[in-house]
């Protein structure tokens, strides 16, 4: 039998996270205070984040040690396997070799616990009793509920309403780990009430849910806020994924040609790809492909400029590709990819031409998910299926050009709680939302400091 799974032993797990801030081609534009337009200092973030995470946010150190307590929890499911998708290759009749890093084996079913655990850990260390957060598909909310539970903390999750309705099992998963879940927009916060007053049927968005969670945390002494993507420290924690992948490829003496990941806020993509940047910088011809939905084409259509991270304008201004903080994407099934902005670190590298971005509509994404499920077995999350679509497209190009490229993608999560979306696809009810040009134009009118473009 040919081996298709490359495993690491637990004692081969990375002992430090990789911080790309030490290797950027230019400095990252700092977050700005929206009132003054001046860079914010750590004190501005301290009402909502613990100092341990604020330090990581700004750190320029290349390596940041992973505390023992976090490593021991990572050991519940890490290292995760790197798998060769042999049967998918055969179905595609491609000479390309396709590998995927399987992050779906975590307790919550995705890459999200890689940062939920350290975030709960650093908050607990500073005496925080309760964390608030937003969730789209429910993946992040379940990961944080899991993390908070392990550290004996409360977890309040604002879940985007359209996902709350589409994915009741994710809510149950969060509640099983002790999380409290409320559909957003809710009537519990000023931000939620303001949206409901304008549109009582609002499907919600990550931007709105973030506003609610931040407001809740800012109003309570015992509470801080936790973000599942976008910020530097979140991307940092996710680099365990890419560091393990690198070690696994080295074990079998394979060099990747193309690395692929889907992008919502950018954390799984960055965690998977960033550890390969030093090699790219040293001249290796690796391509990085970031995949997003056409319904929410942040990297491919959004201008690169300062914008708020949330709808109610409570966050600092971040320099990023953005569709405008008021943009509410159509209710596609990849709920975790419905975010108007993306990680500033990722956006800088897209802007510099080091990362390529592509957008795909949801029907071809589900066709790719079906082919993957029917050849490799595991049912992908709709978010993950965006990466699979492009991995398949690249493998088909290799068939045509007869090139034996090595394609590696991040399998960011399974779709066991997304079966309603598979049902919609199988019964031909899935709508493809092309680029919602008018809605985006409208929302870009509200950008602050647009002159910075
Ligand atoms: C399985 C899965 N993949 C990808 C994402 C997108 O998030 P990010 O871009 O931060 O990795 C999500 C977000 O919820 C997710 O649940």
Question: Can you walk through the features of this model?
Answer:
There is one protein chain. The longest helix has 20 residues, at 232-251. The protein is of the alpha/beta class. Helix 9 (190-198) packs antiparallel against helix 10. The protein has helices at residues 42-45, 51-58, 68-74, 86-92, 113-125, 139-150, 161-166, 168-176, 190-198, 206-218, 232-251, 267-273, 277-281, 298-301, 344-351, 362-376, 382-401, 419-426, 437-444; strands spanning 5-6, 16-18, 63-65, 82-84, 97-102, 130-135, 154-160, 180-184, 223-225, 258-262, 287-293, 304-308, 317-321, 356-360, 406-411. The chain is globular. The chain has a seven-stranded mixed sheet, with helices on both faces. The model has no long low-confidence stretch (mean pLDDT 95). It is 40% helix and 16% strand. The structure holds pyridoxal-5'-phosphate. Pyridoxal-5'-phosphate is lined by residues 110, 136-137, 139-140, 229, 262-269, 336-337, 381, 383-384, 412-413.
Keywords:
453 residues; alpha/beta; 7-stranded mixed sheet; 4-stranded parallel sheet; 19 helices; globular; binds pyridoxal-5'-phosphate
């Amino acid at each position: 039998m040919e081996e298709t799974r490359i495993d690491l032993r637990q004692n081969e797990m990375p002992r430090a996270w990789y911080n790309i801030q030490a290797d950027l081609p230019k400095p990252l534009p700092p977050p700005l205070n929206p009132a003054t337009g001046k860079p914010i200092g750590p004190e501005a973030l301290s009402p909502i984040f613990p100092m341990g995470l604020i330090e990581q946010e700004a750190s320029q150190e290349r390596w940041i040690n992973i505390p023992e307590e976090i490593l021991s929890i990572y050991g519940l499911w890490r290292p995760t396997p790197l798998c060769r998708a042999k049967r998918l290759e055969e179905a595609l009749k491609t000479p390309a070799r396709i590998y995927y890093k399987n992050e779906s084996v975590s307790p919550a079913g995705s890459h999200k616990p890689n940062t939920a655990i350290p975030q709960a850990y650093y908050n607990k260390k500073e005496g925080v009793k309760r964390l608030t957060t937003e969730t789209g598909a429910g993946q992040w909310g379940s990961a944080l509920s899991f993390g908070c539970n392990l550290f004996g903390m409360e977890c309040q999750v604002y879940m985007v309403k359209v996902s709350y309705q589409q994915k009741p099992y994710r809510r149950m998963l969060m509640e099983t780990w002790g999380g409290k879940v409320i559909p957003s927009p809710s009537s519990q916060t000023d931000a939620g009430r303001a949206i409901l007053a304008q549109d009582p049927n609002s499907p919600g968005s990550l931007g709105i849910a973030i506003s609610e969670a931040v407001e809740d945390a800012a109003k309570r002494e015992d509470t801080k806020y936790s973000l599942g993507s976008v910020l530097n420290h979140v991307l940092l924690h996710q680099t365990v994924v890419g560091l393990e992948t690198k070690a696994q490829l080295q074990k079998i003496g394979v060099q990747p040609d193309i690395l692929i990941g889907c992008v919502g806020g950018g954390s799984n993509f960055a965690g998977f790809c960033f550890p390969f940047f030093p090699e790219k910088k040293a001249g290796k011809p690796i391509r990085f492909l970031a995949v997003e939905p056409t319904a929410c084409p942040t990297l491919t259509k959004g201008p690169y400029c300062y914008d708020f991270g949330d709808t109610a304008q409570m966050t600092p201004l971040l320099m990023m590709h953005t569709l405008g903080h008021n943009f509410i994407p159509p209710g596609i099934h990849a709920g975790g990819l419905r975010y108007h902005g993306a990680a500033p670190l990722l956006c800088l590298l897209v802007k510099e031409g080091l990362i390529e971005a592509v957008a795909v509509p949801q029907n071809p994404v589900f066709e790719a998910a079906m082919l993957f499920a029917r050849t490799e077995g595991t049912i992908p999350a709709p978010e993950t299926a965006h990466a699979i679509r492009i991995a398949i497209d690249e493998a088909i190009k290799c068939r045509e050009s007869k090139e034996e490229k090595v394609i590696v993608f991040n399998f960011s999560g399974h779709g066991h709680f997304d079966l309603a979306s598979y049902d919609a696809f199988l019964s031909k009810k899935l709508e493809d939302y092309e680029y919602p040009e008018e809605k985006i134009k409208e929302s870009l009118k509200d950008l602050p400091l647009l002159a910075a473009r």
